[in-house]
Amino acid sequence: xxxxxxxxxxxxxxxxxxxxxxxxxxxxxxxxxxxxxxxxxxxxxxxxxxxxxxxxxxxxxxxxxxxxxxxxxxxxxxxxxxxxxxxxxxxxxxxxxxxxxxxxxxxxxxxxx
Length: 113
Fold this sequence. Notes:
The chain is of the alpha/beta class. The protein has one domain: Rossmann fold (3-Layer(aba) Sandwich). Helices cover 37% and strands 21% of the residues. The chain has helices spanning 13-19, 37-47, 59-62, 82-87, 89-98, 109-112; strands spanning 2-5, 23-26, 51-54, 71-76, 102-107. Strands 2-1-3-4-5 form a five-stranded parallel sheet. Helix 1 (13-19) links the parallel strand 1 (2-5) and strand 2 (23-26). The chain is globular and about 35 Å long. The mean pLDDT is 88.
């Protein structure tokens, strides 16, 4: 498994994935800053990434996942801060391992109400 963490996520989240034995990279690691979502998905396929993790809920409406057959895990929460994401990290890991091509969501409990 090889994850790309979108630039809207905290960089230190990468290290929690590495702690779990999951290969993870940030947009900055690869110098892919300011790429559009379509460009990112295209580059991910070319380089062999298996998943994109993002806080950008609009990606599910903007992209054709037939053209870009990559599972995208979208975090839905009231904040994209490290502490908030860590509250749902186990759910995030499950979503990644069970994800299908296209948009998959992990929703923070406070966002459900």
